[in-house]
Amino acid sequence: MNARRLALVAVGAALSLALALMATRWEGPVFVAGLAAKAAAVRDEAGGKGIAISFRDRYGVLTRHPTLSGGKGLSPDVRRLVAERIADVPGIGGVSWANDPDGSPQSLHCQDDVEAILRTRSIRFSQNSAHLDPASNRPLDEVAKALHPCVGSIIAVTGHTNATGNEAANIELSRARAEAVRWSLIGRGIPADGLRATGMGAARPLPGLDPLDPANRRIEFSVIASAPVKPTPIDTPGPG
What we know:
Helices cover about 40% and strands about 15% of the residues. The chain has five helices and six strands; from the N terminus they run αββαβααβαββ. The model is unreliable at about 5-10, about 15-25, about 100-105 and about 225-240 (pLDDT under 50).
């Protein structure tokens, strides 16, 4: 390959990267705005108009994991229902409450830290198996370390697959992989009673990806602050 062709390849690669960054910049806010509108609609339908929904993390970055706050005067049942309905909106990765039952601020940085780890490292499995690849030990060590400050919260571990293969088998595989990660975290000192494992199969592909894309095979974490005495799927701390 001569120097001219190398230069053209470099220019093409730079242009592709620039276009990808532009797409992320423009499509990301539009996608999150759509999620926010749907979340607000189901919140209002569930009777939770006093609850605020934020789709930005503690650094101000857009996220698919909204934080709920407010709702003073609403009953625990309404707060639970609102959180469950919002968590069920397709595309939303998990729901957290911003306040403790006494109304004091609760730091939810654990989830942000875990997401940062998984942006550069992957939890891998053997093909068509729930057996963790040995290469996953390091990211799991880091995930467990990041989650330790949030011990006492509910930590949801959710497995996902792409759309290849049988739907029922994909759900079972994603659940088995989530369970494998759950047990791995237990072995690293995260209490078992705070960990929940679920499998979504191919129901929630990553935004903008073809459902068949292998990148949809993933594990996601949601830290649900302040576990109640009798844990529920979505925690319901007091109004803030």
